[in-house]
Amino acid sequence: MSDSRVDGLLDDDITGDFVRHLGVEFGEVTGDRVTATWTAKPDLHQPYGIVHGGVHCSVIETLASVGAAVWMGERGKVVGVNNNTDFYRAVRTGTLTSTATPLHRGRSQQVWLVETLDPDGKVAARGQVRLQNLYPEA
After folding, report:
1. Are 130 and 80 in contact (CB under 8 A)?
2. How would you class 83 by CB atoms within 10 Å of its CB: exposed for 0-12, middle for 13-18, buried for 19 or more?
3. In this structure, which CATH number among 3.50.50.60, 3.40.190.10, 3.10.129.10, 3.40.50.360 belongs to the domain 6-134?
4. By CB distance 3.0 to 4.6 Å, which of 2, 19, 62, 120 could disulfide with 15?
């Protein structure tokens, strides 16, 4: 983790109980890339025994938000304003790997792309998150 704010960002202010419940374990965390692993398990399933789409959306938004916040640094904060996630493969069990990278980082908004790979390395879900940059003086 190369950014000095990373340790402060990955505390309860950004992650909290919900992200801990999801089981997200961060790897690389920079303003250019965020990686994490998490485990598909029964308490994250929908009634048909596969990972709930809302869980995929939540992991995707979490990684995009962390990356966007690291990039913003001390200039301000970010909030998600749109999350568009597609689901490609049903997943029941195993370790999933999610990677977030920026598509656009502007003065007022950022757009991040996040892909989640299943245990076989195939894309299980792919999402795009648009975030609003919030500045203290605004």
Report:
1. yes
2. middle
3. 3.10.129.10
4. 19
Nearest alpha carbon to residue 92 among 129, 63, 120: 120
For the chain, the structural domain boundaries read 6-134
pTM value is 0.90
Nearest residue to 76 (alpha-carbon basis) of 46, 116, 106, 115 = 106
